[in-house]
Amino acid sequence: MAGIDVVIEEKKEDAVDRQKVCPFLLRVFVSTSGYHFKLADYNKGNTPANELQIYTWKDATLHELMQLVKEVNPETRRKGTKFNFAFIFPDNRGPMYRMRDIGTTTTGIKGPDDLKTLAQARFTIGDYMDIAITPPDSWNSGGRKGYSNNFNNHRQRPY
């Protein structure tokens, strides 16, 4: 009998055919201070000044988005630079916005959130993305108060 080769192709449940599906505009606001922007920066039709406009799909991963940000911000290419991703979305109960942390990636270091997609993070078209970027010398200094080596440490600018 002739041998039969079986090929099993793994298909991601949220995979998008990028040749057939039109991308959407993702408005990304990048802070290089290590803190997310204040929610007040998004109120009354305002947005923070440091905006990137990225056309992407719901199957885009946080690692893929990190790579796009690194292309336009050379200072974020250093190994150990931490990217903390959050969604900013309108609050259904009032005229304000809410923030939801969705994950963290680090330049040059594989992490558990690298392959998380926008769909898995429950992204809704129209939400903003806020990325707080922390240089490696800020978060990796062991003795400084307020810093941690925990990759999932979510920091928001104090009010």
From TrEMBL:
Record-linked InterPro entries: SAP18, SAP18_sf
Domain of life (superkingdom): Eukaryota
UniProt keywords, alphabetically: Repressor, Transcription, Transcription regulation
Keyword Repressor on entry: yes
Sequence similarity: Belongs to the SAP18 family.
PANTHER family according to UniProt: HISTONE DEACETYLASE COMPLEX SUBUNIT SAP18, SAP18
Protein name: 18 kDa Sin3-associated polypeptide
Source species: Brassicogethes aeneus
